[in-house]
Amino acid sequence: xxxxxxxxxxxxxxxxxxxxxxxxxxxxxxxxxxxxxxxxxxxxxxxxxxxxxxxxxxxxxxxxxxxxxxxxxxxxxxxxxxxxxxxxxxxxxxxxxxxxxxxxxxxxxxxxxxxxxxxxxxxxxxxxxxxxxxxxxxxxx
Length: 141
Description:
Elements lengths: L1 H7 L5 H13 L4 H13 L20 H25 L5 H4 L4 H39 L1
Helix pairs in contact: 4-6
């Protein structure tokens, strides 16, 4: 820690060092893990006021509520996309719109998106075929 204080031009109180030590132990860090993270902290271009979170940059993980929120946002986004695809289609899909099962809506939306992709590809092929016909007729003249 003296090396850290010297290189970072910081004075880390002993009580803080003790708390940090307990935190590292609670995370099951051994000397090797500490040394690796210590070197990363030393190599950062910041000076003064070393914070413990600098040791955990790669160890940071999302909390369970954060993960749940991200999943919920993703599901809602996919559901909205599915509902938008279902309502934009001219097919008779009213029965699907009344479903409460979001997974079925997602599956239908995925199927419709795939169908839309196939229709685009067929349109491209028709354009290419027609272009080839025009080019051939121009060459024959």
